[in-house]
Known about the structure:
Layout: E1 2-3, E2 8-9, H1 18-32, H2 42-53, H3 58-68, H4 72-79, E3 93-98, H5 101-119, E4 125-126, E5 132-137, E6 149-151, E7 154-156, H6 161-173, H7 188-195, H8 205-208, H9 214-223
Parallel strand pairs: 3-5
Antiparallel strand pairs: 1-2, 3-6, 4-5, 6-7
Helix pairs in contact: 1-2, 2-3, 2-7, 3-4, 5-6
The structure holds FE2/S2 (inorganic) cluster.
FE2/S2 (inorganic) cluster binds at residues 98, 100-103, 139-140, 142-143, 146, 148.
Amino acid sequence: MTDVSLGMPQLPAPDYPADVRARLEADAKEIIARYPGSRSALLPLLHLVQSQEGHVTRTGMQFCADMLDLTTAEVTAVATFYTMYRRKPSGEYQVGVCTNTLCAVMGGDAIFEELKEHLGVGNNETTEDGRITLEHIECNAACDFAPVVMVNWEFFDNQTPESAKKLVDDLRAGGQVSPTRGAPLCTYKETARILAGFPDERPGVVEASGGAGPASLIGLRLAKGETAPARVVHPRGEAPQDRPQPGSEHLSSHDAPQKTSASDPENPAGPVAEEGE
Ligand code: FES
């Protein structure tokens, strides 16, 4: 194997200890058996090796290559493409602040800046205690709860700089922290094992898994003929606001059914006749 950048031979990756390798091989075979073609198992296998060390190491990539009869170059190409695979030692909790357009204007940029200062780390850096890795993330399709923060891929909706700082303080203190929707958080390694396709066997986890939040269901409710807006979801720590009384509803331009030419005979569709035609 040659390190192309240096033109120097690269040492082979060290192997796992025998007991670790035997355990991972058994898990890997279970994953591979789910697919008609073994190489389809690469993504969950990368999560599996990430559950061992908290990031994807050269040893992990060599393991995946061995199990799937791929080259390490093929494995590396995939592992470096997806941001869910970490390439360096990182924290127990991956705290991602969405800074895409909607979250950014709703406060995501401010949250990210304040967390950087509060934690004393920059983007993709880890706190000295090894608990938190901070990063800014792209849209996670939860714009109706903007601004959102994700911890180990679980959602924390409608955040503020204050609620986000309390969130990371709670994580560093080691207490149990629950996302807005879903089961209490587990560590990054535990999350990686679940993402590899192994069941989450924590007691009560199924009951805690929530469905879609009210903001996501407004369109469905309108389609069913309901007109009352969904209950307003407030940032953590703020008192919820009761549903408005009938007659006082104000649907935003996003929520209200808009007139179309079919439902608005005063404005029919079709080409506008030129004067004199
Ligand atoms: S812009 Fe943040 S979740 Fe979509």
